[in-house]
Amino acid sequence: MSNKSVVLAYSGGLDTSIMIHWIKENYGYDVIAMCADLGQADELDGLEERALASGASKVFIEDLTEEFITDYIYPTVQAGAIYEKKYLLGTSFARPLIAKRLVEIAQQEGAIGIAHGATGKGNDQVRFELTVMALDPSLEIIAPWKDDKWTLHSREECIDYADQHGIPVKQSKKRIYSEDRNIWHISHEGAELEDPKNEANDEVFTLSSTIENAPDEPEYMSIHFEKGVPVNVNSVNGSATDVLTELNRLGAKHGIGQMDLVENRLVGMKSRGVYETPGGTILYEAHSILESLVLDRDILKLKQQNALTYAELVYDGKWFSQSRTALDAFVTSTQECVTGTVRLKLYKGNIVVAGIEADQSLYHHDLASFSDTELYDQKDAKGFIKVFGLPLKVQGMVSREEIQND
Hints:
This protein is α/β, with parallel strands linked by helices. The chain is 41% helix and 19% strand. Helix 1 crosses helix 6 (155-164) and helix 9 (297-315) packs antiparallel against helix 10.
């Protein structure tokens, strides 16, 4: 091992596989490969062997799935954070966790820096590097795609480089999508998807059934929450991983959570991606439904306003910022009463509410009904509307006088 080493965020994919050899060749550093197990299933098969065969001096495969769900996914879901109305942030909140572990291993191994395979056109470069800056700004950051020495400018050239140097990769020129998978989602970009006029082919979907192939009969399910945290599905308790795995199974079966969208990247360009988030889509919907029953109007309004900021902070790689931490404190306080059960009907990509109950429900049947009740005297509404509508009445009077004067 040389005097200097870097820790590479290694996925086993095309880019990071060739970067092990490239960094050694161009920098003379030893490369320690770190793969974060975030629930990407069989993508981890043979990963250590491939990393070593690609030239890594050491390999860390870190099981971070539970931490990913409880410390990154749940806070984001509780915040109701969705980027540009559609994107459920599956890659966005995974990157700061990976980068945090890169920093910890670099400190443990005495490495001089970290390296990543994110391109200079994407958001991930920001998420990795901002996390490193926040947690250990003394570390060097190597990003080959932005390096002057990097001469590979397409996926095809990267595959040729791998072939020339005997680097084992799974990606081929037949299936050249850029994909990112974890227990929350899988994203698909590249190839024919780069043109928004092209419909996503059925073969793109690898986690979930297409709508056409989803069951012709609906399926009922329930999720129980304790203080905003899902603790069981269909009355079966389990770990956070167990819960999300079961939600993924149900959602994938019924074609839930497929999203084709054009998003605005932080670096200033639009990109098109196809996302599969089967369990996550169910979880967001169920949590929102339960909140509608237990949170009052003012809190819901504040949450909706803050959710936009929270989503942008996560998307922009500012997970470890003071702003997100402060918003998190607010969100956590709102979850104290978010305990209850949501029943849903799943059918061909649709999630239909089939019942809600909560320990601290603010829904009062007598108030909501058309019948008179001691809690609410309908005659009181006359005075309320007069006061509430006074500014509009004055505005109308002024406008009327202007019309008459004309």
